[in-house]
Amino acid sequence: MAPIPRWVVLKFGGTSVSTPDNWETIYREVAARVERGWRPLVVHSALSGISDQLERLLVAAPAGEADALVEAIEQRHLELAGELAVDGEGLLRDSFAELRRITAGIALVGEASYRLQARTLALGELMATRLGAAFLARRGLAVAWRDARELLQSEPRRHVGERARYLSATCGFAADVELQQSLAAHDAVIVTQGFIAREPGGATVLLGRGGSDISASYLAVRLEAAHVEIWTDVPGMFSADPRLVPGARLLRRLDYFEAQEIATSGAKVLHPACLPPLRRSGIPLQVRCTAAPGIDGTRISNDPGDSAPHVKVISIRSGLTLISMETMGMWHQAGFLADSFDCFKRHGLSVDLVSTSETNVTVSLDAAANELDTDGYAGLVESLGELCRVQVIESCAAISLVGRHIRGMLHELGPALQVFEEHRIHLVSQAANDLNFTFVVDDAQGPRLVQRLHELLIPAGPADPVFGATRNELMAGAPSVAPAMRDGVWWAKKRQRLLELAPPDRAVFVYDLATVTARAEALTSLTAVDRVFYAVKANAHAAVLRALLDAGLSFECVSPGEIARVLEACPGIERDLILFTPNFAAPAEYALGFDKAGQVTLDNLYPLEHWPDLFRGRELLVRIDPGHGQGHHRHVRTAGSHSKFGVPAAELDDLLSLADACGARIVGLHAHVGSGILQADNWQRTATLLGGLSARLPHVRVLNLGGGFGVPEKPAQQPLDLAALDASLQTVKAAYPALELWLEPGRFLVSEAGVLLARVTQTKGKGRVGYVGLNTGMNSLIRPALYGAWHDIVNLSRYGEPATELVNVVGPICESGDQLGSERLLPPSAEGDVFLIANAGAYGRVMGSSYN
Ligand code: LLP
């Protein structure tokens, strides 16, 4: 029998599995575990937002109104599949078919049972893990996809209704040697779903919203794993919500009980129910952040770091309602509590905090834990009214101080409690487990009290075994502000010169031509590539065009305007150096193209069909739609039936006969799948597709693989591996030695070479958010508003000063979308400071507008 490996369980949440960058991180982390001799089991959630969409689908389906949702869900998965370069259609065909069958079935019957709801919601995880497993396999790991319903079985519970039976099931979690052996037999990384399990009879059940954490913990116990890692979108558990308290500190170590108390008292980092199974088996859990894998996060184990009593967390839960029950009738009487609590039970309401005196019992109800009828608590109040005087106090917040032996430190809390002097406390409760002291106050007071209590009770200072860095310090040290991206970058070296160049009253784009030339040389030195055309649309500045011509590049133009610009910037340029690739153009533009450009690309059959005379005797390249788009945003993925570009491969016969009819010769095939692609194997796939089609076109001598070469925009991104790109294209060249390979990049050549310089006009703090206003915004750089693009932003006047403020950087335009960056950690800014927005050389000035 094979030795049983040392398992580690890694759980990734919805945000973690929704972007290709995060999947690169997941790959690296999993591969590192394998290298260290561990056997990883990866359990992950549905893509972010998909469970919500499936829930909405269940509401819309009985009325037959879910088709658009089905479509959107499918599209979302296909888009990610495209970005991960895995075969989405093939991997998800069965799940898509099942989703459509279920939706039609619900429409037919007019309702969805809880059993069917569970089966529908499970599809989110099943689809996501198919993509995840395929991606990890494509990156070279041995991977086995397993259906979690074979790994986790729910246990029967008495006294629970159908809803809980199917939608919030629980499972047994004893160590399971048989399971260990069955998974060990794969000799591979196991990828499975969170959130889902099955009943002994076979029905799909769910572990409740957020249940993927619980799946990870059940599986860890069953596999007797060495530890569990929960990868999420925050770098650990903090001493307060960092959005509320920027000085909140990372909690480096917690024991299981503390962590559980923190999780139940408001922190959304972990599902509280994932901890008891681990505690009983002594399996440690580490909370990690997918966007900042360099941070160690929070370790939860039997070892809390030190044994002194501490307040470790100030937490807040808002949206509570208090029910105050007042009567003399309970004094020395038996049964009042039983009778009143029975009312809560009958109305299906779960009680949260309780405080009692001889004549009053006050309880809190958490809206998050209770499903309210439209009339709120009216029914409850009516029933309770028969027993006592009832008062409902809405909009309350529970503020909890959490830490071990909290009672032992009440005397130290004295000065801190003075903050409550001028505020009404509705209820105080001290947990029987000595871990938590809670005050309920008006919602409106909550945030300020948390900030004040944090200041008074959580020590500031250097990291110790319990308290780590603050969120701001972590962000400054972590790649989220991209210091590594700034290493050696031209604008950091030329900072003084840029400060001199920045006009006092205008914003300007500045380009570094040495960087343009260096990027051009990187592409012209690819040995597999015959010609490089610069996609003029990225930046049409005359000096940029001349620098690229000098570096040996040709030009790809999409419009007569771009052709005119090239002719003006580079007088006397040979026709052959211009490639014209219009889209949905009028006949006159093709005529102009044949006149001014050496080669013309057609991207539709319509012109051949309707204006054959224009093409008689001409040589043409034809743009093919490769079926799958890629790129940094759906607006820039230019393939597939949802994109307006290109001739589908299936129309090749029509193309041939139309070309024959007007005597045009097809000498090249072209495809451009999208923009901002960082996976080096992308162009080889395009080339292989076009190469295959070229066999049917005797005159083809060129394959133009398009542009789309990405540059790192966000901190976690790795630059495109040009050596790997060249090697992959070499194999194409070897397969089609007679064909020339062309590229037509835009962004890669100019993005990093350009910066936008703007002046600070005003600053302000509004609530928790600070704003820095600049003298330009989306009118100069629309990419953040249009694509959610991330551009590094620097206060150049204060370069190198400590970054201590978290601010949104905005422009002067009358739109809320006029924001160049959000939550940026910067030194305090002042009117007149020069701001630099990086990576603005491509699709910056050319997309600018005169709006406002
Ligand atoms: N070739 C064709 C046919 C194109 O449509 C494009 C870009 C390129 C080449 C150059 O792609 P590049 O190498 O620059 O990725 N405004 C967006 C980008 C739109 C790209 C449009 N087509 C952005 O700011 O990200």
Q: Which descriptors apply to this entry?
A:
852 residues, alpha/beta, 8-stranded mixed beta sheet, 34 strands, globular, binds ligand LLP
Give the arrangement of secondary structure elements.
Blueprint: E1 7-12, H1 20-35, E2 39-44, H2 50-60, H3 67-84, H4 88-109, H5 114-138, E3 143-145, H6 162-167, H7 177-184, E4 189-193, E5 196-198, E6 204-206, H8 212-223, E7 227-232, E8 249-251, E9 253-255, H9 256-264, H10 275-281, E10 285-289, E11 298-301, E12 313-326, H11 336-346, E13 351-356, E14 360-366, H12 378-385, E15 389-402, H13 410-417, E16 427-430, E17 436-442, H14 446-457, E18 467-470, H15 471-477, H16 483-486, H17 490-493, H18 495-501, E19 508-511, H19 513-524, E20 531-535, H20 542-550, E21 554-557, H21 560-569, E22 578-580, H22 587-596, E23 599-602, H23 606-610, H24 612-615, E24 619-625, E25 647-648, H25 652-661, E26 665-670, H26 682-694, E27 702-704, H27 722-735, E28 740-743, H28 747-750, E29 754-766, E30 769-774, H29 783-787, E31 793-795, E32 805-810, E33 819-826, E34 834-837
Parallel strand pairs: 1-2, 1-7, 2-4, 3-4, 7-10, 9-11, 20-21, 20-28, 21-22, 22-23, 23-24, 24-25, 24-26, 26-27, 27-28, 30-32
Antiparallel strand pairs: 5-6, 8-18, 10-11, 12-14, 12-15, 13-14, 15-17, 16-17, 19-29, 29-30, 29-34, 31-34, 32-33
Helix pairs in contact: 2-5, 3-4, 3-5, 4-5, 8-10, 9-10, 13-14, 19-20, 20-21, 26-27
